[in-house]
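protein under study:
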Amino acid sequence: MTPPTAQQDLTSADAILDAAERLLPRFGYKKTTLDDLAQEAGIARRTIYLHFPSKEEVFLRSIDRVVERLVAELNAIASENASAEVRLWRMLVTRVMSRFDSVRKYQESLDEMLADLRSQYLERRETYFDLEADVLAKVVDEGRRKLGWHVEDPHETARHLVIATNALLPYSLSREERGSRTHVQTQITAVASLLLRGLQAPAAGVVRTRSARGQG
């Protein structure tokens, strides 16, 4: 019997993750079993253990994949020909809306999944945010160099942009808020515009100096 190739291994792992995404809206996180995953993916249950040690890891890896896809989207926007301002605005909107759309089919199961996987998810979350900030920082630095944005440390600023938009990510929203894509999109477009204006504003030191002079 020919051993599986690396490509076959990757295909099996993706099939399992695809199955997990399809089963979440159907059964929910808690009721989805490894047998369900195997049947949906069209593989033997033992094959799952070749790729994932547990059901929990399957779903954590599915979250990883959502972030991987998002980072690819952010890199694509960062490479476009538009101005740094336009690209950064689009990236901030995309980091929220891409996640929103990725969980839209199983948003009712999201709370129970995150409740069960909270500690493991939080361990991964900082890595997610760093990956996104790395991409944002490239465009922030370009804005600093070419457009005169008031930025001392592009990566630190990128982290602040990540933090500022985290309140609109799906796990931070109520079920009612997650039910309205239009509402979330309206909120993030407004927040992204405000953040861009902040980068283009006079340096904080200049503002404080003028304020101090006015008081004197």
